[in-house]
Amino acid sequence: MSNTEAPDDAFAADLLRGHTDTIVLGALRGADRYGFEIYKAIRDATGGGYEIKEATLYAAYRRLVKDGLIEAYWGDESQGGRRKYYRITDAGRAVYRNNVRAWVATRRIIDSLLGTEGDRTKGNHR
């Protein structure tokens, strides 16, 4: 996460932190990636607005491997060192889909409670 986080971004950061595993699984849906490449994909997807600390990501990688949701393997040596790559498993894809469904349902409820359900239809989402 960026050190330039504004105080009003603290709540959003807390919400996002609870979804680190799902965010990593999402970053792996299209292709295998090495650790720092996942970090960059997450950062770039938000235009630099959100960064997950590398230590948090590597803890997530270990947890996701242990849970059988991703697999780790060593790539070929390139530019002086071997990189550990991660690939999502079928179980990881299923967990990702379930987590996204749960997030959408939760977002719908929160939007209804806060009276912001129309905000998503104004082009303010991906």
Summarize this, please?
It holds the Pfam family PadR. With 126 residues, this protein is mainly alpha-helical. It has helices spanning 10-17, 20-27, 35-45, 54-66, 90-114; strands spanning 33-34, 70-74, 84-88.
Counted up, domains total: 1
Going by helix content, strand content and strand pairing, the class is mainly alpha
- According to CATH, the homologous superfamily is Winged helix-like DNA-binding domain superfamily/Winged helix DNA-binding domain
Fraction of residues in β-strands: 5-15%
- Average pLDDT over all residues: 85
Helix count equals 5
CATH level-two architecture? Orthogonal Bundle
State the end-to-end CA separation.
Answer: 20 Å
CATH topology: Arc Repressor Mutant, subunit A
Unreliable spans: 1-5
> What is the helix content?
40-55%
Rg from alpha-carbon coordinates: 16 Å
CATH class: Mainly Alpha
**What order do the SSEs take from the amino end to the carboxyl end, as H and E?**
HHEHHEEH
Number of strands: 3
Shape: globular
Largest sheet: 3 strands, antiparallel
| Order of strands in the sheet with most strands | 1-3-2
Show the helix and strand layout:
Layout: H1 10-17, H2 20-27, E1 33-34, H3 35-45, H4 54-66, E2 70-74, E3 84-88, H5 90-114
Antiparallel strand pairs: 1-3, 2-3
Could you walk me through the main structural features you see in this protein, from its secondary elements to its overall organization?
The protein is 52% helix and 10% strand. 13% of the residues are buried. It has a three-stranded antiparallel beta sheet with strand order 1-3-2. The protein has one domain (7-120): Winged helix-like DNA-binding domain superfamily/Winged helix DNA-binding domain (Arc Repressor Mutant, subunit A, Orthogonal Bundle). The longest helix is centred in the last third of the chain and has 25 residues, at 90-114. The protein has helices spanning 10-17, 20-27, 35-45, 54-66, 90-114, and strands spanning 33-34, 70-74, 84-88. Mean pLDDT is 85; it is low at 1-5. With 126 residues, the chain is mainly alpha-helical.
